[in-house]
């Protein structure tokens, strides 16, 4: 098989909707939060709760998928997005901070299901195409980068409604599109209990936590956590330096393009230079971003560092996902392990969402970047030591893509 199946493009469309909601939420959540919150320090709490609910729901979502299948789970997962839109509209129109928190929590529930689009696209796909399948689905963020900020800008102040209320209402329409795509997905291949037991008996149920799998989870989680932390704090830092909303929005939009545009090529990059080199390149780019941030903090430098932040995230996120997918292959508990992987990502992303204001007020912009710099350097050392010791395990995976 040399071509990706048609369903991959359905997952691409579904992921485009997922990431559009994510881009819209990061563009407006801190602004709406600061307007509705009783104190400034609580302004990022709604966005933090969004990631908290992603964290809480991710593993249960994977368990549900392993029981009722991907298709039915994605259908159910679209419902919280509609709920988020309804509650968010009400919250902004009535200046209700608690309802805003609930809206973002419901959005987190939806995202916890939708994040599995990239792994669902690799189900029953040839080993040589798994990295490309993940890369293509993640590339849905390019659509999100164009649609999300534009939709936010158009609906932000329209028709006499409260600022941003229609942005939340648009989630209802996006939920309807997500539901339609899920309905169009092919039926899941049923794996009987007997077949699963045969796989476990043959040894495929062993070695869940091999070195490549642990490395894959660590890279994707840390890369996501650092990206979330620096992205949110950068927007706050730019606001403190009196940049306009349009300038902040433009910088974030370029960052989002940098996050997802490389995905059209990341699969090919992985095939040419290997998963380990792809991951290490991503971490080096994240390091470069933090060095740039500690050296200067004008708007041009911040915009460039946000682009580097997006590029580094892409290589660590797609590279980590590809390493995990190829390591698991047709493991009988692959979906649960994908859930644990996304749980690890959600935990660090939640920390990255809750701590920007706290870190900015304590250690400052420079101190936050130094912390991230140290974490990236430590992970690079660990990868070099561990993957060199477990070279035979990684090589067997690398051979699977040739």
TrEMBL record:
Keywords: Membrane, Transmembrane, Transmembrane helix. Residues 209-402 form the Major facilitator superfamily (MFS) profile domain. The chain crosses the membrane at residues 9-32, 44-62, 74-92, 98-121, 133-155, 161-186, 207-232, 252-270, 277-296, 302-323, 343-360, 366-385. InterPro entries: MFS, MFS_dom, MFS_trans_sf. PANTHER family: MAJOR FACILITATOR SUPERFAMILY PROTEIN (PTHR23534:SF1), MFS PERMEASE (PTHR23534). This is MFS transporter. It comes from Pseudomonas saxonica.
């Amino acid at each position: 098989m040399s071509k990706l199946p048609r369903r991959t493009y359905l997952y691409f469309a579904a992921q485009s909707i997922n990431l559009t909601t994510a881009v819209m939420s990061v563009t407006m959540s801190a602004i709406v939060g600061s307007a509705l919150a009783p104190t400034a320090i609580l302004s990022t709490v709604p966005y933090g709760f969004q990631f908290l609910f992603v964290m809480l729901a991710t593993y249960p979502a994977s368990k549900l998928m392993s029981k009722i299948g991907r298709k039915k789970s994605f259908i159910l997962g679209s419902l919280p997005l509609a709920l988020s839109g309804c509650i968010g509209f009400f919250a902004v129109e009535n200046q209700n901070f608690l309802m805003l928190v609930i809206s973002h929590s419901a959005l987190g529930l939806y995202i916890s299901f939708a994040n599995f689009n990239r792994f669902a696209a690799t189900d029953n796909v040839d080993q040589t195409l798994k990295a490309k399948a993940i890369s293509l689905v993640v590339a849905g963020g390019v659509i999100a980068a164009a649609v999300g900020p534009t939709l936010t800008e158009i609906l932000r102040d329209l028709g006499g409604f409260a600022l941003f209320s229609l942005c939340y209402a648009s989630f209802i329409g996006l939920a309807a599109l997500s539901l339609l795509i899920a309905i169009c997905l092919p039926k899941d291949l049923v794996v009987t209990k007997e077949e699963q037991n045969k796989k476990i008996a043959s040894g495929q149920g062993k070695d869940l936590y091999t070195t490549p799998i642990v490395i894959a989870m660590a890279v994707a989680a840390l890369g996501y956590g650092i990206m979330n932390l620096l992205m949110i704090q950068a927007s706050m830092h730019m606001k403190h330096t009196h940049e306009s909303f349009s300038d902040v929005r433009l910088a974030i939009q370029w960052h989002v393009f940098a996050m997802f545009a490389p995905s059209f090529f990341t699969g090919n990059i992985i095939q040419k230079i290997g998963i380990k080199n792809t991951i290490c390149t991503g971490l080096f780019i994240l390091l470069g971003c933090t060095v740039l941030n500690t050296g200067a903090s004008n708007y041009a430098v911040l915009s460039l560092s946000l682009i580097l932040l997006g590029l580094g995230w892409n290589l660590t996120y797609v590279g980590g996902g590809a390493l995990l997918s190829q390591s698991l292959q047709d493991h009988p508990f692959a979906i649960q392990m994908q859930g644990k992987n996304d749980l690890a990502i959600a935990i660090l992303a939640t920390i990255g969402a809750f701590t920007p204001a706290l870190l900015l007020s304590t250690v400052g912009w420079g101190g936050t970047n130094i912390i991230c710099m140290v974490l990236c350097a430590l992970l690079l050392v660990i990868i070099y030591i561990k993957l060199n010791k477990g070279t035979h395990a990684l090589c067997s995976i690398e051979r699977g893509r040739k």
